[in-house]
Amino acid sequence: MHFFIWLVFLIIILLVFIWGKRMLRQKALKILLSENKKITDKAVSACLPRMHAEWLQNYSDDIEDSKLLANIWGKGVMVFEYILPVQQVTQKELKQFRKKLNHSLGDYAENNDVAHLEGSPAFLISDLWFLAPSLHIEVAYISNQQTLDYLKDIKKLEK
Predict the structure, then answer these.
(1) Which residues are listed as membrane-spanning (predicted)?
(2) CB of 146 within 8 A of CB of 74?
């Protein structure tokens, strides 16, 4: 009988330990996501005014309402979606805009010493599309392997 009591007690201690470790990991991930969101928001806010696109006029210069895509793709994926009001834009304009914004984000990261995964750019536009009356921009902050793996998966899906 004593054996079963000790066994139940040991199982309870083990479950509490596992639960506590999981909670600490989730809290650390939330803090990391929050910090990376701030870094990405600041970069996008700094780069958008430089785009000089006539069709991109009615947005706030200080962007803080990005949405995290990690809930869809898994934990640790640092991809943030920005939705900007736009009346009309062509595919050609979107392609040029994406190229310019990627370049501008790269310059921003270099000039501001943004930490990122070695061997990759700090920021990359993972997706960009127009759905009237909004422009949707997904910006990946490549600060970890999970985000890089996400980008590789997206590239495979686009083929």
Answers:
(1) 6-24
(2) yes
Query: Is the C-alpha dihedral spanning 30, 34, 39, 40 positive or negative?
Result: positive
CA distance 90 to 85: 15
From 62, 63, 46, select the one nearest 108 (Cα to Cα).
46
Number of domains in the chain: 1
Q: What is the number of residues in the chain?
A: 159
User: Any alpha helices (H) in 68-144, and if so which ranges?
Assistant: 70-73, 91-111
Adjacent-strand bridge partners of 68: 80
Instruction: Tell whether pTM > 0.85.
Output: no
Which of the two residues, 3 and 39, has the higher pLDDT score? 39
91: amino acid identity, one letter? Q
Encode pLDDT of 46-104 as tens digits: 888 887 776 666 665 656 677 777 566 667 888 999 888 887 888 888 899 999 999 99
Residue range of the domain that includes 62:
2-158
- The C-alpha atoms of residue 101 and residue 147 are separated, in whole angstroms, by 19
Q: Residue 20 has what pLDDT?
A: 92
